[in-house]
Amino acid sequence: MSTRGLRNTDCANEIGASDSGGIDPGPAIVVGVDGSSAAMHAAEWAATEAAARQVPLRLIHFVAPVDKPAFRPGGTRFRQARDLLETARKMVLGKVPEPDRLEVQTAVLRGHADTALLEMSESAALIVVGTSGAGFLTRVVLGSTALALVRNAHCPVAIVRRPGIATGPVLAPVIGWPAAAPILMAGMRAAALRHTELLVVRIWQGRPWAAPPGHYVAPSGVTDAQIAQCRRTHPDVEVRSVTVAGNPAEAIERFSAAAQLVVIGTADHRYGGGATAALAHELVRHCDCPVLVLPAETAVSTGHGGRSHAVSASARP
Predict the structure, then answer these.
(1) 281: in domain
(2) Does residue 165 sit within a domain?
(3) How far, in Å, CA of 265 to CA of 300, rounded?
(4) What's this model's pTM, rounded to 2 decimal places?
(5) Which positions fall inside the UspA domain (predicted)?
(6) Residues 144 and 85 in one domain
(7) What residues contact residue 182 under an 8 Å CB cut-off, 6+ apart?
(8) pLDDT reading at 75 higher than 80
(9) pLDDT, position 267
(10) Mean pLDDT in the chain?
């Protein structure tokens, strides 16, 4: 991982490691914490995810890169940030069944969140972003922060509007192949971690919801055989599929009300992912449950089935 986003840090591994004055660059689930209820919900969700995956949880707070005493390590603003992170650390440890088995790292970083999180995405297992509310305000906030990560991050990004429910399926909306492959594989793993079923939502589009009248796209090209192929890595996961017509975002929003997670991709247009990317941007704005967005490079790396190991490594939920 690039170290540019980690300069001027006052950080420590709070659990399971000594205070080394730096952040372990290994894969972890990263979540920004600013004290808001949305950020705390995101941290709670991220802690549960980190415990299930058995990877560290990294809580980050950003302070402005201002050259004033309060903003320097040891200054008033830094001390307040450390107190905030300690509160968040205690909160998330109280939410997981076995807190002694969850490594929580905290760090106060000077810099801009968007730039630093994008750099962290080069090695992170997952970046989690919290948001709250709905409507115009949420769209504005997402447009300036979370959507930038959704478009540009190198690792998956989870958008969390609320902590989520403990029951219900994982949803995997698919439109075409091979863009569907990493979505299905990530969905399988997410369902396995949650001990629940995967609901594959196949989108049937006579006319794309975002296309002008007269434009035709063939129905979903994802077959039962292709779904079964992706299931081989998690044969114990129960899989159901439904086909929806019309506006896919509206249909998936209805399903998401009773779901634990929606897994979607932003696949490259060259690999049949243009419609999937547009759908992802709608879902992160409107879905009530957490949405896990896979980066475009994940789907590109799949090719046409000849690089399955690359898919398995990069499509982890």
Answers:
(1) yes
(2) no
(3) 11
(4) 0.79
(5) 29-161, 171-295
(6) yes
(7) 265, 267, 294, 298, 299, 302, 311, 314, 315
(8) yes
(9) 61
(10) 76
